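yo

u said u wanted the structure for the complex thing, so here. seqs first:
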Amino acid sequence: MLKFIHIGDVHLDTTFYSRESAIREKLRGSLRMAFLEVIEACILEKVDALLIAGDLFDNHQLSFQTEELLIKSFNRLNEHNIKVFYATGNHDPGEIRSRVGAIRWPDNVMVFANDEICDVDVSNLQGEIIGKIISVGHKTNRESRNLVQEFPVKRGDIPHVGLVHAMVTNASDVEKHDRYLPCTKEDLLEKGYDFWALGHIHQYQEIGEATNIYYSGNLQGRHPRETGEKGGLLVTIEENGLTKVEFKNFAKVIWSTLSVDQLEEMTSYNQMKDYLVDLATNHLEGGYAPSRMEGILRVELKGRCPLREELHEEENIRQLEEDLKYHFNLLSVEVKTEELLPLQNVEDYRDGDNVLAKILAFLEEVQEVVEEGQVKGEVRGEWEENPLLERLLKLPFANKGMKTNAEKLQYISKLLKGLPEQAVHRMVVEDQ
Amino acid sequence: MKIKKLEIIDFGKFSDTTLNSLDQGMVVIYGKNEAGKTTLFNLINSLIFGFSPAKSENHPYSSWKNERIEFKSVITTDEGEEVHLYRRLLSSPKGQMTMDDNLIELKNAPLPFANHISWEIYNKIYSLRVEDLVEIQGKAWDEVQDKLLANFGNINIRNTKDVIKEINEEANTIHRHSGRGKTLVKEIETEIQGLKKEKQEALATQSRLKNYDQRLAVTKSKIEEKTEEKIILKVQLKRAKQLTPIKAMISEVEELRRQQIKNPLLESLSHNVGEKLQELEEQQQNLQKAIERKKDAISEKQEKIHDFTTEENLILSKKDQVEEEYKRHLKLENLRAENQQLQQETLRIEDRLKQESRDLFTKDITEDIEGETPQRIKGLNIPELGLMITAQQKAKEGLREVEGLLHYQHQQKKEVKTSNAYIVAGIVGFLLMVLGLVLNLTPLQVLGGIAIIYGVTDWMNGHRIKKQLMEEVRGSNKEKDLLQRKQQLTVELEEKQKEIFKKFEAIPIPKLVLENLQELFLTNLIKVKDLIYQLEDKKRSLKDKQQQEDVVSKEITQFLEQFNNKDMEAGQQFLYLKRMIPLFENKKVINQTLKEDLAELERGLKELQDTLQDSVSTSEVLMEKLKALGGGSKEVGLRTLKENQHLQGKIYLMEEQLNKIPDLDSLTKEINSYPQEEAWIFSDLEIERAEEKVEEIEGNLQNLKDEKKELEIIIQQLLKSVTLDEIESRILLLQTELVKAFEKRDALMLLAEVMGRAEELFREENQPDVLKNASRYLDLITGGKYTTIYLEESQEGTTILLKEKYNPIPRRVTETFSKGTLHQLYLSLRLSLIDHLDGKGENLPISFDELLINWDEERLDYNLQLLKEISKKRQIFMFTCHDWMARKIEDAFGVQRIQLD
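structre next:
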């Protein structure tokens, strides 16, 4: 029997997307706690090994303290005869100047830090071989080869476990898509392994059904998009090849995002607050139990709202956040109001022989052309003959991130959101 | 539209005033200042658009008398329809319009056919004052443009340029390409820069942390190293302090030893040699005296010793033999007696044998007992003879039987009978044997045995023969057979007898006896045989004993012959000897004691003499040595000796002390084992230095410990510093904010651009008509000097260009243009715009307030030409306070002025 815990994308010492430094501090502590809990779980479950599928930390940011934490933790596993198999990822590649190579790992730690495929036997205390770990690491942060294809096919009855930080994609021309060791589900399946321990995707998932190809996800959500429970997998491969996979939550802080629209009727702060409390009650009950863990809730307000102006006031947003935070006893609440729209109905202003109608028509036209171009996947198209779009593409944007026209088009498309409403809002003198 | 009639009930200064015959293209209203020209213009405004404000108490033209506004009007539309209008403003406005007999409630709304123009636009565009021309450039033009572009409907749309400006300003607060001023992006970027710097610092902190940690490790190992060094040094010092005195003593001993004179003579001389010499002298005198005494004692003892004679000595020496020989002498006496007895016995046996043999044999066999006959008798085998006799008897009986059978044959019947004598013989034999066993007499046993054998065998033979005979009687009764048998038996008998004869050959036994040998013969024979044996034994024994007696007697005699008393009988001689021996022995013992004493004395003497000799030679040796030591002088020798002895004493004392030290050997070994480079530990100076070094090390250690503490504090502090991930988090947040800012700014820019473009396009769509029309008007009022108006859009704004009739290149309109031309241009544009604004709608009336008063004659004429043309489609109200102007227009248009009071 081979028993191990599979984790990945721990990202120790990396960023936390929270406005408040106290919350960031909390999250940082929580991530370390989660990591230590993994170590405790390894000991408690008496596993044979801990498998780390890359991105344990960020190469440039590993702190002295964390390095000590890692060494201490792995030494503790060593005391319990637990091996650590660690394949590097794009954030912690094994190239010469990286930190991985500079650390003096304890004897029980096997690091797969370069592009050479290795298989290592896992033995029990009696010296019997109980499993094989086949792995490859990221040597650089730009590993774009499909190295999984080179993995050996399983031979014999000993459990085989693949360990790799990779991007599983369904496209046929995988190597064109990603520079994070891309491969396909079929590449993995044809090796006949008992289990694939993957890293890179931060959401826990099995690739396909009953494939035993798993992403463990990360240990602790770091920003509002990494929602829900986070942790690792406790995997047991029996002698008869039966594989048991159990997800274990290690995260102490859970992120959750609630998106709210249909706010046209909101005319007072209290009305708005009560409405949000109702929605959040349903959302939180369905999502996770805040009593067990600490939660960070992000509320994204969208659509037309009479309180838009008020809700752009920093003070009011903070008040709303505080009210929700105390109501649900949460660690933190963040209310986003950027996407709120003014109450005026754009449609009312589309007809008419005036500049505003012209503006709205233009915005619509640009949106259509851009979308059409995007749908077609073409950079060329009607916009070339559209003088307005041509002008827009030449605009000296403050954001210099876009190089190609296609990127610019995408950016414009993004910017266009809410602009008609803004145009109306700005051009129309409200009746007093 | 045209206003045909105005019936003012109340409007400002006007009350119950009716203006008729207005139904013409040009209406000239003449009046002095304050006559109500502006009031009238406002009345036209209210007529078309209603009241603003809509309350009489707020309205500037509320009737002065009645605080209200009320008027009636008749209007004809461009289509020629007549409209009756009634408007009144009290607390609320009221408006009614009758058209085609339809009453339309307007309330305060504009006239339906004037809906295409707002009140504001009408107010600003359709009324031209002389001041407008003065301010023709700059803002005024923009205003015209704006009105033209924006206020083109019934909605409240803001000035696009204003909005764009506003947007640009807002965008500029976020980001400015020039990089000037304070912008949000700049702020964020500055903050990011700061954080990046902080990040660099944090990185530096990290490397410092590592550095400090390494230094800490180094310091820790140094502390260990130094502590170890200190401990070793301290141990060495402790050892040194322990070993140094010992080493010093050893060294001193060695030094003293070096000082000693290395003369073998000295070593052989004891420390008290002087006294010893004296002692020796005294001893020698004493010894001499003792020797004398011993010698006296010896002579005394020697005199007491008994001198043994040769005879005495012989006796003493044969002491044991005497005793032995005496015992043998006694035995010899006994032997002699035995021999006499034995002789008598022999004679007795001889007599018996003579007697026996006389009965049995023919001659006396005792004469020569060792002769042939007795020997042969001895050699006879009695049992064999027994058997032979039996066989002979059997043969005889067989023969007798055969003869009997033969006799029976003859008598036909014969009886066979076995003799019972055999059984009797067996029983007798048995009894004899038992008796022999009881009495332990061999002959009887033998005899008994023979009798048993004889009895048993013959009885059995008898039976067998009887059986045979019975069978023979039954089976072979033939005589022939019996005869044969008789013969056979006879032969057999003869043979047997021959055998017996043979056996008794040379034995003098009568033949008859032999032929009829009986068992009794054998008994006798056995007796004889036994006696022969006995006789032989006795004779032999006697002979031996006699020989023995002779030997012993001879030996004793020989023994006694050694001594002097030869004439004495052996027994007496032995008694004498036996009496003398203890006497001599006693003397011998006394002598022995004396001799021992003497030997003791002599030994003592010898010892004394030896001692004396030793003493003397010792004295001599010592003297010799002293002299040799002292170079011939005994005294000098003594002195030298004493000095050396003193040194030796010192050495001894020190060694004594050294020996008291436990485990000295191993300590000495240790001292000697120190290599040269470490031998410093036995030097006080070096020990001092080492102690100083310990102090120095302790100092160093303290420094290192301080350093360690310091490093630990630094590390603790550094650990508290902001972590890299915290900074990165902040940077990430700021970057997100930055992207948001960029997006907001870019969205604003995009909007502004779209707005600008929309405005531009809107203008493009509308402007050509306006300009074309305006060009026509300008051409007209300049008398063909300027033919075309162009607009040039640039970043600074819109610039107007004018084309002169014969100049292909248009001229930019600047302030250098004549005022008149500028006024002409403005008027052309304004009128063209009004035309454009009305577009397909009703042509609303326009008002000119003293507009043309500054124009020269020529221009005025050209202008009036234009107005004439315009007034054909649009009613013009011309307000003037100049009579000449009123007259000129009256003349030009053929109309009559309306005079205001």
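Residues 148-155 of chain B have pLDDT under 50 and may be disordered. The radius of gyration of chain B is 98 Å.
cya
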